[in-house]
Amino acid sequence: MQTVNHAEVPFLDSVAAGPSAAAGRFLDIDAETFRTHFNRKPFLFRHNLCDHPLFRLAKLAELARTLPPSIVEYNAGKIPVSLPDQDKTPYTGLSAEETVRRIEECCSWMVLKRAEADPECLAVLNRCLDEIEPLSERIEPGMCEREAAIFVTSPGSVTPYHMDKEINFLLQIRGSKTISVFSASDREVLSEVELERHFTGAAIRRNMVFHERYQERATVFELKAGYGIHIPTTDPHWIKNGDAVSVSFSNGFKTRASLRRGMIYNLNGRLRKMGLRPAPYGGGALRDTMKLQVLRAINRAEKWLNIRPAEG
Ligand SMILES: [Fe+2]
User: Rounded to 5 degrees, what are φ and ψ at 253?
Assistant: First the structure.
């Protein structure tokens, strides 16, 4: 896998440390960068959470043991970048708690999804997003569906190529990662049909087919402890861990606009399954508004008639 075709290399040193730590703030985000990039382009920032007790391995092992199994996902870490069929993901045979305790040598990848189920984690998530909300509301109002995830990964592990519905502020707490991010509006790497599938398929089916030719279209970030990266909604990305254990904390959320966009892609996907060729999202504000009204009417009718969508 070639990873050196950097479309653009943002220099970490150019992200200045601010007085945020002294002011008791968790994040240190440049307001002008936020204004020009938010939910359009990825960017780096600093944070002050590396020493927070929530992210100690003993605490994370306890969370892996006590959180509901449905929100703890873990597998082998030596996996390909292109792993669209998640049923073929290899596992290590370890428990979630053992995976954290032996993370240094067990070649694993683990995520505590919806980690805000833990009150301490919820408090950290809310403090981070309370700092972001005043900035994001001016651009995309209606922050909602706040979600936390904690990733614990072995040296050299790979997170396959995928995209997420959430707008993300990912904080690197420990270790380092190389993150290749692609634009959601780059039709050379991401088609309308893939976006439609993402918003009509099961939430767990996030991985996508990756072709090596995509890599030259990536923006590649070297993310070290103490830094964070903003990833706009549905910007595809894949991640390679550095040579140490990595812990990172994901602050995810949606906005009214991102929810609307997802609903339109959902409707377009359903129309395409019926053999139609829907106009892409964003082609016209009036058409998108009408689609939303149609989707709401369909949802109401399905509820009234007790129709459940087919799986897949
Ligand atoms: Fe992701």
Answer: -160, 175
Q: Please calculate the CA angle 232-236-239 and round it to the nearest 5 degrees.
A: 105
pLDDT in tens, 189-240: 999 999 999 999 766 568 899 999 999 999 999 999 999 999 999 999 999 9
The encoded tokens of residue 150 equal 């904690």
- CA 234 to centroid of ligand 1, rounded, Å: 9
What is the average per-residue pLDDT within 7-19? 52
Give the distance (Å) from ligand 1 centre to CA of residue 237: 7
Residue 291 or 110, more confident: 110
pTM above 0.85, yes or no: yes
CB atoms within 10 A of CB 119: 7
Checking if the pLDDT of 75 tops 70, the result is yes
Q: Cα separation of 10 and 218, whole Å?
A: 12
Q: How many helices (H) and strands (E) does the chain have?
A: 7, 12
Measured in Å, residue 63 CA sits from the centre of ligand 1 at: 21
Whole-number Å distance, alpha carbon 250 to ligand 1 midpoint, is 9
Cα(163) to centroid of ligand 1, in Å?
Answer: 6
- How far does the centroid of ligand 1 lie from the alpha carbon of residue 302, in Å? 31
Report the separation in Å between the CA atom of 232 and the middle of ligand 1, taken as the mean of its atom positions: 10
> How many Å lie between the centroid of ligand 1 and the Cα of residue 161?
8
**Amino acid at the residue 86:** Q
